[in-house]
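Subject: for your reference before the review

Hello V.,

The reviewers asked for a structural picture of the protein, and I figured it would be easier to keep everything in one thread rather than splitting it across files. Below is the amino acid sequence we used in the manuscript, unchanged from the supplementary table.
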Amino acid sequence: MEFLDKIPMNLAVLAALTLGLAPFVPEPHIWEKLKMLAAGTLVRPVDMFDLLLHAAPWAVLIAKLIRMALVRG
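And here is what came back from the structure prediction:
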């Protein structure tokens, strides 16, 4: 848990908004992969790995927000 505490909030937000959403055109890449997951077409290992990489900054940001809420509450 100390790992999450050491990450600055602005860095976590910046990573989620840039790395998590890139490339932005024609649609955010993570959105495309989530749609593939929901449709059941996310079957290639490279697509699964791509989803993992684009979801990682969002997972860190969400974990940090939850950690902050639990520590304060």
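For the response letter, the relevant points are probably these. The chain is about 75% helix and 0% strand. The mean pLDDT is 93.

Happy to draft the paragraph if you're swamped.

O.
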